[in-house]
Amino acid sequence: MIGAYEISLLTTIGIAVTFALSLNLVTGFCGQISLGHAAFLGTGAYVAAMSVVAGAPFAVGLIAGGLVAAAVGAVVGLASLRVRHDFLAITTMGVGFLFVGFTRQQDWLGGEMGIAGIPEAPFGKVGLMVVALGVAAATAAFSVYLKRTWMGFAFDAIAADEDTARTVAIDVSRYKLAAFALGTGIAGLAGGLYAFNIRFIAPDSFGFVESVTVLAMVVIGGIGSVLWVTVAAAALAVLPQWFQAVDDYKLLLYGVLLFTVMRLSPGGLAGLVARLVRGVRQ
Amino acid sequence: MTAVLEVTGVTVTFGGVTALDDVSFVVHPGELLGLIGPNGAGKTTMLKVVTGIVVPQAGTVRLANADLAGLPTHARMRRGLGLAQQLVRTFDNVSTIENVMLAAGRQRTASPWAALFQVNRSVERRIALELLERVGIADAAEQRPDHLPLGYRKRLQVARALALDPALLLLDEPLAGLNHVEAAALADVVRGIADDGRTVVLIEHNLGEVLRITDRLVVLDSGRKIGDGEPGAVIRDPVVHAAYIGEGEAA
């Protein structure tokens, strides 16, 4: 039998992996950077929390969170169609701040105090862990599948060169919207699980630091690599729980890791491992 | 016989500068048309008008008798244009053959949500391989384009544009940057594509190759059309000659 601590840890890992893979869809597969991804985790969390507090079944809350996050993501994607690269980074960062600023001011969302007393999932902590790990596994499987489809193939072209993608008859705008909707929808699912796991949410749980943290997971794992983003997300999710020192210096550690990866191995862990394998073969 | 491309009265101004001034020409089916002119003549601007990157202040562009006004670039490609850009722009995160497959799969990528349920790439791989053989770079099929020499990358762009099976193939300076031998070889490939029945518009500075392979020339200078006709006759025209001598001295 595993103890309550391990259950909590595995649930946290499942949520982190789902969240990181959702950003990997947008940033890794389609090449659209986002510095405000936590806003969609938050959207999913708020919708799911409000739904179950109002008496809706947990599954309904979870799915509603994903759908609303996807809808908001599509709207943000629409606004982002005209901006690229660093301008897109700044725009999405603005969306992140907008989310926190908005939720703080809304009394019906609990304002600064957030939503406390989210009911415990009827399937218990073990059930929630199973659901979180299941959603993470499904997201990973979906990512691997997506990469093999023509949608993933078109994402490759857009990530490489948007203008040239248009010359091979790809409707870049619609594909970018699809990437945003898929990525933010899955982030919304992760958000619902987060709300059910912590059972308390507040605007600051979904701030800029969380957006940077999830981007760090994707970059450190290797932008676009499903396997290594999963590994990095799991590792970065458990480290602060295992070592108090890591929790205290979380931002510092993520910053150093991000800097080191970008400087020494821009392909992240995935790139590093690929280079090592090539080195050994030679 | 309906013209493949019909450009009528196209005028483009950037700020106070007139890049194209009431330019009209047609491209007939199966023709290899050379669009030439000194630097700054407006050739690339004309290409951008045809592909929908630049919106003209006046004039129309019709492809197979259908007005292209208001259509974005990707939609024009679906309507029957194929483009090899002047600067080499390849997808360097996938292999050479996959660059061509992306264009060959235009039916599969028509809608993102339908594309999510399409996995099979074997038909497109076969078409792409044939096209790489057609332009003579099948040996590099599995390599990354950014690892290839310029001559290969230029040919890749031609193969990728052909993979759209276009009614009209637009080639913007495919020979630029190539040495004498490479340029002649690629010019032969372009002539061969036209001989297969494909309609081609070739923008090119290499006059020797242009005169050797094209069926007809349209000459632009300072945004105006100054010549249109059989290549030998056009190039002997005093007005065209003057435009080129002027540039020849500058270069």
Q: Report the β-strand fraction of chain B as a percent range.
A: 15-25%
- Bin the helical content of chain A: over 70%
CATH class of the largest domain in chain B: Alpha Beta
Write down the secondary-structure element order of chain B: EEEHEEHEHHHHEHEHEEHH
CATH superfamily caption of the largest domain in chain B: P-loop containing nucleotide triphosphate hydrolases
Q: What's the helical proportion of residues of chain B? A: 25-40%
Q: Provide the low-confidence segments of chain A as ranges.
A: none
Flag low-confidence runs of chain B.
none
**How many H/I helices of chain A?**
13
Q: Please tally the helical runs of chain B, counting DSSP H or I stretches of 4 or more residues.
A: 10
- How would you characterize the largest beta sheet of chain B? 6 strands, mixed
The secondary-structure class of chain B comes to: alpha/beta
Indicate the mean pLDDT of chain B.
92
User: Mind summarizing the main beta sheet of chain A?
Assistant: none
Mind explaining what this structure looks like?
- With 282 residues, chain A is mostly helical.
- Helix content of chain A is 78%, strand content 0%.
- Chain A has one domain.
- Chain A has 13 helices and no strands.
- The longest helix of chain A is centred in the middle third of the chain and has 27 residues, at 172-198.
- The longest helix of chain B has 16 residues, at 180-195.
- Chain B has two domains: 1-80 and 167-187 and 200-251, 3-Layer(aba) Sandwich (Rossmann fold); 89-165, no CATH class.
- Chain B has helices spanning 43-51, 73-79, 96-104, 112-115, 122-134, 150-162, 180-195, 207-213, 231-236, 238-250, and strands at 5-14, 17-27, 32-36, 58-63, 66-67, 81-84, 168-172, 199-203, 216-221, 224-229.
- Chain B has a six-stranded mixed β-sheet with strand order 6-7-8-3-9-10, with helices on both faces. A four-stranded antiparallel β-sheet of chain B has the order 2-1-4-5, covered by helices on one side.
